[in-house]
Amino acid sequence: MIHDLDLGYGTREQVEGYLSELESGGRALAELRAAGTVKAFGAGCNTFSPEQQCDEFARRIAKIVDLDFFLIAGAHYTREHFAP
Q1: Is residue 64 included in any domain, yes or no?
Q2: How many independent structural domains does the chain possess?
Q3: Measured between alpha carbons, how far is residue 19 from residues 34, 80, 81, 83, 84 in Å?
């Protein structure tokens, strides 16, 4: 799972750097998947804001790397559904 790429974990400049690094990392993960070393890989988004909507972010990542899944999570979902 590729995670913590969104604005909740870095500045806009850092996020752009993460996405740039994902190009080579995504190729490496695809090679591992093709070799059967990993069955699948995906990415996720936690932060929703006017500057970054998860659906837009998911589309950007999907243009960079061929994911098997994309998880749209968030603190509110986790708290509302799993908090004691």
Answers
A1: yes
A2: 1
A3: 22, 30, 30, 32, 35
CA distance 60 to 75: 22
- What's the average model confidence in pLDDT over 39-65? 80
Tokens of 27: 């190729």
**What's residue 66's pLDDT?**
92
The parent domain of residue 51 ranges over 7-82
Within a domain: 1: no
Structure-block tokens of residue 40: 């699948």
43 and 3 Cβ atoms separated by less than 8 Å = yes
Which range, 6-10, 32-36, 57-61, is most confident? Answer: 32-36
